[in-house]
Amino acid sequence: MELLYVWIENFRNINNKGLNFSNQYEINYDRLSNNLTINLLDGSNALKKRGRILKFKGDEINYLENFFSSEPLERISNISQVTAIIGKNSSGKSNIIDFILTAISKGRRDRLSPNYVLIFKKNDKPYFFGRTEGKSITTSKVECLEVELEKADINSEWETMFYSNVADNKEYLFEGSSINNCSFEAMNKLQSNKIRFVDSPIFSDTWQKLNPNNNPERKIRFIFNPIAFTELESAFIAEDKIEGIIKRYRKAIYQESTSNYNRFKYGLAVNLLSFLISKNVPMDDFLDGVQLVGQEGMAEAIATLNPKVVAFLNSFHHSEIEDLSESDYSLYNDLLQELESQNFNFGQIEKYSNSILVDFSNEFKDLIDNKQDLFNNPSLISHDWSKLSSGMRAYLNLFSQLYSVSEKVRGNSKSLLICIDEGDLYLHPEWQKNFLNDLIWFISHVFQSSKVQLILTSHSPFLISDLPKENVILLDDNCNPSRQLNEESSFGANIHQLYTKQFFLKNGSIGEFAKRKITTLLNDIKEMTEDNVELYQKRVDMIGEPVLRFRLQDELKKRLSQLSKETQIKWHKSEISKLTAS
């Protein structure tokens, strides 16, 4: 099943707007007559009518089938459609995605506007879902060619995913629904997806794409944050022995440890102990067995203290502890026991680093096998990529969440709608240029059993260059959509030419600060005096755009002609000297 069209009566800044998500058809909804028109892009009717049944003709000669295949053209693509919604900030891109995902996912539709229309295509037939004429979803209907469209059973037909790497922590209308929500805030609860992705068969190929030169300095390393331990350190501690334990672990982890293994082992042990302390778990017998040494009130040496801590944690009988299930506590304990029983190599320690870092080595991979969910508890411990650029992190965050959803839907016959809100954010222009190509490659490989439809938002021209004009929706400042069907194709267009389009840069293609400075210079040249000719010439020479520089140089010469002969001769000699030196 494929989403073809959405009409929204009222939602945030969207009022009575229809959006086409198909590169085959032009669909319009008239709310007054409650009728649809479905045409091919050339304006001819796209449907054939047999009695009370409507079917698509299927003879769209201009439609490029399997266009989004990552393989040679003869291969069938599992990506049915890609649509990019391009617009400036606050144009309504994110609102459109929020609306669609809310409408298509179970759980939050009652919060939508009274009337909306979604049109789908399945088995060459059009289907309708939504509300019209103020009626309920069950009783609403839409007609086309005097035939009532069949209702789409989207609850059983669709899986949905939302991804956003934007750290705005905003609330989405679809939160709490059936959607696979990978928003920035939600990803804090999906930490283990990163580890699972790195442990997956597709990761080595993905890493090769991002690190084609196999730079040995660029490697996958995780930084672990023992949240419970860190919070206890900053709190007031009334018990001397607990304070002594915290001091000893702080010194052992960040000052004395000579290996990542020790930092990780000690960090996990004191973190779980700190978590239990924060929950006011009784531990008098354990504390009686801990010795304080020295004038600083520090607990005994870590070599004797850590085994005591691990033994206590192992003997503690989990009851109802808030924020930590009994199964997760058991997994955590198993991990501590393995760390205590043998040594592991987690990579070379970094000098002067106050962090718990771990190389994602085979040893680490084997150790945490089937224990990844431990790192999903943001009130206990979290982890993240270490020492990677913001662009690399953005890529790996996106691919790790896509891989996680692919595991959930594997073998599922449902269609999959993936909405990615500004997925190319934080990427260097070179990676923005590769973004869609890499995304199609990855989705084609991990969602082989699913039919995928992609909706992307961006305010970059790179996506326009990568997509036929039929696959691009341009939003103006008032959220008015346009597909530019009458314009020449931008597919494969030069990025610099796209930037000159009025849609992106209405007031020229240079920065506003430079524009203001150049305008001021143009006016100031008229006031140039004998004493500051050299200064004005330097200001003209620094302008990089040749046409602007020529214009200003011409103005400077005009003013120069009004000054003394001596000043003109001096200027010409200076210009001859510059030419000779070049």
UniProtKB/TrEMBL annotation:
Q: Which residues form the ATPase AAA-type core domain?
A: 235-465
What is an annotated GO biological process for this record, any one? double-strand break repair
Gene Ontology MF term list: ATP binding; ATP hydrolysis activity
What the entry lists under InterPro entries is as follows: ATPase_AAA_core, P-loop_NTPase
Q: Cross-referenced PANTHER family, in alphabetical order?
A: ATP-DEPENDENT ENDONUCLEASE, OLD FAMILY-RELATED (PTHR32182:SF22), DNA REPLICATION AND REPAIR PROTEIN RECF (PTHR32182)
Listed name of the protein? ATPase AAA-type core domain-containing protein
Q: Which domain of life is it from?
A: Bacteria
